[in-house]
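Many introductory courses stop at the sequence. We go one step further.
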Amino acid sequence: MTENPCPHTGFSASQQRQWPLLHSQLLGTLELGGSESIPESYLKQLSEEISSTIETSGMSKQETKARERIHQHLKHNIEHKLAGSKLYAFGSTQSRTSLGVGDLDLCLVVDGPSPRKILNKVRNILTELEMTEIEVIGRAKVPIIKFKEPETGLPVDISVNNELALYNTELIRAYADTHPMVRNAVLTVKFWASSRGINQAFMGTLSSYAWTLLALAAMQLDPNIGLPNLQKNADKNIIRLDHEYDVGYNSKTTFDWNPALNHASSFVAFIHRFVFHWPFQEDVLSIRNGGALSRKDKNWTQAEPEAFDLVPDSLDRRLGLHSMPIEDPFSLNHDLGRVLRPSGYLTIREEFLKAWVGLMNGNSWSELSKKENHNIIEEFDLFEELRSLSMNEVNALHQEVLDQLARAEDEGRTLSAQRK
């Protein structure tokens, strides 16, 4: 890199332009006003704008019915042709925290051979049903098959035996049902994160589900809201999948939302927490523990390298484990922040600061949630997973790919012969 980095932060000139507020904060030159300076009239107007956005961006009854129709169509055909199987819907549509966009997430629960073999059978069924753009991703931690329903163009993902996701969905739905404003607060955060381009795990930021957990944890930690912990003192409900999980929670809980808080003030409180009280220095965010759990108690120490250690020239390296730890409420060893790349982490920090500055300047909701696409993926080291393997292990993986291609070619020739 030919640019001279900042002697205090290590940021290059281009990085100072990419993350100017974060750079200023690290230098100690960023002046941030307090929430007490935000006029009530502005909060009222902003709340109306947020409310309108949520209403218009939510899924319509027609879209909901279309998704249900597709689910039932697939359920009927797949369960009929795969004995003993069950096809369930999960995700934000089912938990009522959907913004009306995104895939239809389905989970196929079935006993039998390996998930990849099951997905190959599902692929044949989908081909018969004339689904389009069918793609099997069998080597993922949770193997899935992706495709589109031809009539609507709706993207659909089917995972195999991803049963824990069904319980996660039920828990988020229970939180959304505690009070309408809880659901609205989650949707506000998700809309902002989506618009600002920081809710894409595959791009090195956080997943939409992780942002949901952040929103809920912030409401649990905020004394002006006091969202209850639905897992506290709940009866145990142990399920056995790859491991044992306690998925118990109190499903019929409601609470009184502070009437002084509207859409805008709850969003202000969310941004304020992560700007002024960045929790990840000492804590893990955990809705299971009422919002936070100390790193020491969780035994999730910050591993090296940290994002700030990788500027200016090493942002293509993998970020140290537990850099922004978010505990899954049931799979307690799963850190939702593990997908972060260094640039993703720094961009999220910048976006929190940018949102706060925008609130201090009285920006409208359309300005605060203006569409932004961050260029993060180009910094990935595509071969990072291979670099720690021996040549024998790399060769074995290479041969496995070649075998898969050979099988695909054989299947293609067989199908061509059948059509003739």
